Structures are given as C-alpha cells and as structure tokens.
Amino acid sequence: MQEITGNRTIWLLLTLLLLSGWLFLAGCENNNDEIVEVDRNNDADVVVIGGGGAGLTAAIEAADRGADVILLEKMSFLGGETLISAGIVHGAGTSVQKEKGITDDTWADLYKYWRRTGIFHNNSWIISVVTQRVPERIDWLREMGAQYEPDYLSVSGWDMDNLPMRAHGIAGGGSELIEVLSNRAKELGVTIYMETKATELIEENGRIVGVRTEGEVTELYAEAIIIATGGFGASQEKIDKYAPRFTDAVPITASGVTGDGLRMAQEVGAKIENMGGMIGYRTSGVSGLAGLAMRPILYVNTEGKRFVDETAFYALMAEAMIKQGGTVYQILDKKIYEGLSEDVQKTIDDAVENEQMPRKESLQELGEFFDIPGHILEETVAEYNKSVAEGLCPLGRSADTLVKVEEPPFFALPVKLAHLGSMGGLVINEKTEVISETGEPIPGLYAAGSVIGGFLGYVYPGSGAAIANLLVTGTLAAESALDFMGK
C-alpha cells in the first residue's frame, strides 16, 4: 500500500512539473501577442519635433508653463522655413495697426478674406482661432523684443488695391524672428538637440509615447509629442505625388523641409487634407536677377502674348504662369535698363555675353532668341504701348503703373515658376490633436505649423499667413498638451 501510494505521489509530481513547463513555454510563444507595460521614466513632458517657428513657439509656450521640454532639429541650425522668410505676420485688429491709425480692420474681416481666398476648402475653426489669436501673438513677440513696428506695415494679398495694411513686417526679417524665439527657448531651459533627425514615432497601448531618432540620442519618451516639421517643399518626390502642378517649379525653401513629420504621422494612421497647394512664386532664369524678375515689367508667354496684370500678387502670378507652361519672359527696353542699378546692369550684361538672355535692336530678333514668334511679340508690345498712352489696360492693371517698352536695345529675361513651400498636411482638431483615418484623435500626438492641412486652400492668400498659422497653432499645441497632462 505504501509502495502504491508512493508511486502515485511521484507520478503526480512529474505530471505537475510537465504541466508547469508546458504553461511556461506556451506563455513564451504567446508573449508577442500580449501588451507589455514598460517600467521607465519619461525623458521630458513634451518632445517637439522641428526647430522652426512653429516648433520654437510650442517649446516656449510649454516651457513657460513649467513643462520639461526637449526640441529636436535635424539641421545644424534652427529656423526652418521661417528663417529664410521675411518674418511677416498677417493679422488684423492688432496693436501695431492701431498705432498706425488703422482702427477699422478686425479679425472678422481677415477671417472672411482667408475663407474667401481659400475657396472655402479651408477649415472654418482653424481660420477663426488663428485670426482671433494673431493679435495677442504679435504682442507676445514684441514683448520678447521682436521689432514689429507700424513703419513696417504693408499691404499683401489678392486684391492689393482694396486691402488694408495687414502684413506686419519685422526689421530683421525671419532671421530676427528666429533669433528672438531661440533666445527665449534657451532662457526657459528648453533642451535642444541639433543634427538629430526624428525617424519614427513610438506607439504603445494605443498612444504615441515617444520618437526614435538619428543623432545625439536614439530614443526619447514623453507625455506628448508635437510635430512641427514644416511642409514638404524640399521633397521632389512628395511634390510629384501631391502637387504635380509644381513638379518643374524652382524650390525657394529650407532644405530640411522634406515632409518627415507628415510621413511619420501617416505611418501611425494619420489623415491628411488639402494636399496639392503650394505657395506659388517666381524667380529669374538667370542667376542674380531674382529681384528684377519680381518687378512689374511687361510679361509675355512663349507665344509672345501678354497674359497677366504684372502687378498681381505673387501667388496669383504663379497661377497665371502655370497656365502658360511655367516659363515666361520679361521684356525690357533701353530706358528700363538704364533705370536699374549698376550691379543689375552688370549682371544683365554678363548674361547677354554668356547668351543666357538676348539684347537686340528689334523685337523680331528678340523673340527669335527664345523661339517666340517675333511678329506676335511686336504686335503685343505695340498694343501694350497703346494702353500706356490711353491710360487703359485691358488686363485691369492700374494705368499709372504702366511704362512703355519702345526704345532699343531690347532685352528679354526668362522668368521661371517657383514655390516657397507646401500648404496641405495633417488633419487636426480644435486641440491640434492629429486625427487618424478613422476620424479619432491619435492620443499623445499634436501638430502645428505648415505640417498641418486645413488652414489654407490651394492658393496662398498673402504674405505672413503661414507665420500667423504657426504662431497660433504652435501655442495651441503646447496649451492642449499641457492641459491634457494637468499642467
């Protein structure tokens, strides 16, 4: 009896050992299917990806509210697209306007203007919050030392003759704006990693908790991640995909804006909108004459015909150029040439000598240089000069801005379609949370600046609109992230 009982005990023990081993192995096999909590401390409260205007604004606002902030910049310098901009902020109902004596312009007026120029493809809530909060953001910049003064106010937009002065200029342009912002970020103790490229968002338990990088650090974890990487104006691949109208346009933008934030967010399911819009611009086909190309001198297309009011806002001029194939020509005569600076004249002379542009005694010969029908060019110039004499332009240009083109020698400067960056991007909600393809917010992920869509339509409405957007959405992203954390 004792032997039988002892054998049963041994067999029972062996069975239990085998069963526990099997359960251990089964647990190992199913480990990848289980959600494992990681026991670690975050590197910061907020990680901001991108050190341009939007990223610096978000970092400053978060740090000013007591958050521990890390900012990542993949380039060796801060600034992004804002650095190479004029630093203009589009705003209405501002203290700067009032100091200039402009008291009848309101945020509601600007709201209506941006909605109209966006052909109502833009989101009303974004336009509403940006137009209402821009005045306070301009004051915020001035308090930090940015020189936004009444003397630098100007008119910019589609209907230049009927718009108030809403373009708020700054003495030192975009470089001054970035200097002011970066200095403030450093004063507040924002940790800045330069030459550190964000490559992938880290997702755990259904929320974004960090970012993988290449550079000084490889991984960073935080309660909130703010994408402020700018647009995709420096990515030919993305322009070809999303904005093919600008495939052959000359990019005039920061080299770092290649759509990294857009890609990373899409990889975790983010939705995009308003893709296809670019900030249309133009530039010279001859190096050193970009400034001349922007002047309102007679333009003709490849057929030798005039096609646009040369004083049109630059984004509208770009739209007109697209319809003409992207490259057009500026026609100058001796009198216009002699009115240019000596440096510009020297550049033209060198271009003529290098056969980059023609100098001819007749319009017929001038046209032939670029395979433009000479007789049509002659007819176009004659009709244009008649408009000058009669003070009536068939294309709607103000008569007092017209200047005759009649005295040889004649010159033709090739002018090419260009762009200053992209306008479409990530869908966000009122908290600047990034929205997924399912229509729900992606927890822990926010976006600001030119990486977002919905703010503009497809044609840029006026100088400073992009910076107005980044100032307000950068602020709102920081506020929303910290509100979520209870800070």
Can you tell me the number of structural domains? 2
Class from secondary-structure proportions = alpha/beta
Distance between the termini: 73 Å
CATH topology of the largest domain: FAD/NAD(P)-binding domain
CATH class bucket of the largest domain: Alpha Beta
Indicate the percent of residues in helices.
25-40%
- Total DSSP E strands: 19
Mean pLDDT rating? 92
Sheet having the most strands: 8 strands, mixed
> For the record, what is the CATH homologous superfamily label of the largest domain?
FAD/NAD(P)-binding domain
Please give the count of helices.
16
* Proper CATH architecture of the largest domain: 3-Layer(bba) Sandwich
Give unreliable regions as ranges.
Answer: 1-39
Q: Which geometry do the CA atoms define? A: elongated
Fraction in beta strands: 15-25%
Q: Work out the radius of gyration.
A: 29 Å
Could you walk me through the main structural features you see in this protein, from its secondary elements to its overall organization?
By secondary structure, the protein is an alpha/beta fold. The chain folds into 2 domains: 44-277 and 423-485, FAD/NAD(P)-binding domain; 280-419, Alpha-Beta Complex (Flavocytochrome C3, Chain A, domain 1). Helices cover 38% and strands 20% of the residues. It is built from 16 helices and 19 strands. It has helices at residues 2-29, 53-64, 80-83, 95-100, 107-117, 124-143, 173-187, 236-242, 260-267, 290-293, 314-323, 334-338, 342-353, 363-369, 374-390, 465-485, and strands at residues 44-49, 69-72, 89-90, 148-154, 167-170, 191-193, 197-204, 207-214, 219-227, 250-251, 272-273, 278-284, 299-300, 327-332, 359-360, 410-422, 425-426, 433-435, 441-447. Strands 1, 2, 6, 7, 8, 9, 18 and 19 form an 8-stranded mixed β-sheet that branches. Strands 10, 12, 13, 14, 15 and 16 form a 6-stranded mixed β-sheet that branches. The chain has a 3-stranded antiparallel β-sheet with strand order 3-5-4. A hairpin with a 5-residue loop joins strand 18 and strand 19 (441-447). Helix 2 (53-64) packs parallel to helix 16, helix 6 packs across helix 16 and helix 14 packs across helix 15 (374-390). The longest helix has 28 residues, at 2-29. Mean pLDDT is 92; it is low at 1-39.
